[in-house]
Amino acid sequence: MKKYLPLLLLLFMASCQEKPVEKAVRLPYYDTADFTPKWEMPAGQPFHQIRPFSLINQKNQVFTEKDLAGKICVADFFFTFCPGICPRMTSSMGDLQKAFIDDDNILLLSHSVMPDADSAGVLQRYAQEKKVNFKRWKLLTGDKKEIYDLGRKYYFVEEDEGIKKGPEVFLHTENFVLIDKQRHLRGIYNGLDPNSIQDLIRDIKILEKEPVLAVGQQVASH
Predict the structure, then answer these.
(1) How many CB atoms lie within 10 A of CB 172?
(2) d(CA 6, CA 21)
């Protein structure tokens, strides 16, 4: 037995050593159209977030920022009769719906950039055609100026680095934007790129695990 004592002692010492604590992986915050990452929330001033709004979903129900409370959201901007990029974007949203179909923390938002044509009834028929799960994925219409203002000034969905455009300039982009439970911007992704969608799925799971960051508290980068 004595000849095994040194080995047992080494094993005991190894087991008693404190294991290094891994830093929690976090996503950066964004508050500008060029999506420069921010690793801390500024103290003493409000941080950029999606403003209050009022739109209509595919079931002709009023949908506001209050419906985002406690939800991690992915937003895009499309129109139902688009022959170009929109079908592929809708397919990517469908992949996200499938990945998080049983996860009530997640909400998908598709805003119509042609709301005069995309009434609630049109959106509902489109939803049925594309097998949209109403609980997980909202198709939104409403006032065009409000939708374009949200897309350009708050979601920064066009990444135009501050170039001002009015509602008369068509909004058309393949970008998906990730929003946390406080309506802060946390990522932008190419809705046409399967690899980017996989990155988005990964980042959604990261957001689900991270604690809420207090104002002025630094984010640990990874």
Answers:
(1) 16
(2) 28
Nearest-CA neighbor of 202 among 100, 75, 109, 65? 100
Backbone φ and ψ of 118, nearest 5°: -90, 75
- 3-state secondary structure at position 163: coil
Stated pTM of the model: 0.83
Report how far residue 116's alpha carbon sits from residue 146's, in angstroms, rounded to the nearest whole number.
13
Q: Residue 191: count other Cβ atoms within 10 Å of its Cβ.
A: 27
Q: What CATH number was assigned to the domain covering residues 54-209?
A: 3.40.30.10
Q: Map tokens 């920064």 to a residue.
A: 156
Question: For the chain, what is the total number of helices (H) and then of strands (E)?
Answer: 5, 7
Read off the pLDDT of residues 33-89 as tens digits, 9 standing for 90 and up: 999 999 887 777 789 999 999 999 999 999 999 999 999 999 999 999 998 899 999
What distance in Å separates the CA atoms of residue 122 and residue 124, rounded to the nearest whole number? 5
**Helix/strand/coil percent split, the chain, to 5:** 30, 20, 50
In three-state secondary structure terms, 178 is strand
* Pairing mode, strands 62-64 and 54-56: antiparallel
